[in-house]
Amino acid sequence: MFAGKKGSLFTLMGLYILTIPFFNGLNVTAYDNSQILGHFGESATIFTYSIYIPIFAMLAFMPLGLKLGKQIPVRTMILSAGFLSIIFNTASLFADSIEWFTFWRSLLAIVSVIGIFASMVPILLKYNPAFNMALLYGILQFIQKGSQHVYQYFGAYFTSFYNWTFGIYFLNFNFLVCIILAWYFYKADVAPMKTKFQFDWRGWIIMILFFTIILFLSAEGQSRNWFDDPKIGLAAGSLFVILAVYLIHARFTSDPIIDPEVYKYKNVVIGAFMMFYIGVMNGTGSVITGYMTNVLGFDSVSGAGTHLALLIGLCISIPLSTYLLYKRVYLATIWIMGFACYGLYHSILFFRFYPGIDFSDFFLPLIFKGLGMGFLFPISLLYISEGVPPKLSASRMMSGIIAQAIFAGLLGSAILGTLVSNFNVQHKTGLSQQLTESNQLAQKQLVNTKRNYLFMGLSEAEAQKKAEKSLSGKTSQASILLAYKDIYLMMSAICFLPIFIILLFKLWRRPIGRVELEPIPI
What we know:
Blueprint: H1 9-23, H2 33-40, H3 44-71, H4 74-93, H5 98-127, H6 133-161, H7 166-185, H8 201-220, H9 230-251, H10 266-282, H11 285-295, H12 300-304, H13 306-326, H14 331-352, H15 360-385, H16 393-433, H17 440-455, H18 460-504
């Protein structure tokens, strides 16, 4: 099926490189949002939907993509995915509305899922189980996470240098390289994992409906002030109704997308919670990006520089954690190292959020975040997969994806944004109440600022108004600074808490157990 000598490093590298464009179909355009928003001239809420919908489309299509990935010959599937990706990607360039742009981007995301599964099948068949699952997961995470940050950095750089269309052309070039590599490496056109096709269509529709409601909550929860809006309450209540309907459906279905039987395995329940927990800790990265851009006024290239710091951490921790897993080091050791790195990341930022904070202040803590990601992501994927039979492995995979990407990554980020806003309002109110005549420092600043405006030729009333506005602006900046400090203090406690629990209850004092091959380790 493959070209090249069996087990050769060259073939292994080629097969892994094939996966990179499909993993990054949406990453290279992560920093061209403002240009695209200006291009289409839509509202912020509509544009938020245009960002979220392709992500939800990709996640929702995964169960079907996994099934199709076993039925279609690998060479046909990966070449088709490459050609279709170029077509859909190019079509988004000529979209005349945000709706059509989102439609083509969603199709690209869906095809990317098929490409991921198609490109991973040969790696599973050629290098496992002899290659060892810890190494497979570690290498995959290194390529996936590492390429993600490289793509996002260069995407921001070239978008700033050229314009938002760079990402479209760059991706097309990547998919073209993918097609050439597939043409070389895949000689036989076979479907080695083919089984009788059976898919839970009804359960899939229920899951898509569930995702749609989560999409609504993520996109509009904060703007509608959450449960102050009755539609938000209705949507949240509908989630429980849909969940009940799905449980009834799964009861009478032989092979549901997410089989409740999978939760009889303790590691799946704990692993899904841990993946949610990791997603929550990881979500504060969007807070940093927002602060650098919206408060400090950094350009997109400076903001994207955070990905280089993360990449340094990943390049250290993923190989190290993979080696430790391969050498069967206790799970507790790796968990503690990961949580400690995330805790240091949040703690250092808590002490560095002060007036005059600059990009250099973010670099070291972001390296610690990259270290934490590299320790926790591979082990969380392996742990939730431990001992789960192949029949339930798709259920396990979707449980982890929903916990980490849907609830923690997307919905959690929206809730985190609300927390920042609420803390900001509280601090701004508190600081404003201190702007009284008894506050001599504030009065001194007001008098000095007013005097400067008077020297500029403004009238008494205009100078007074501008001086008060200037003082209010300083209060606003101080309040947002305090709000971010609150977030990072809270997250520091959340990160260090699992370490004390692991040590106190002597958890995971054993190496990783048996992990099955299926499904594709994402």
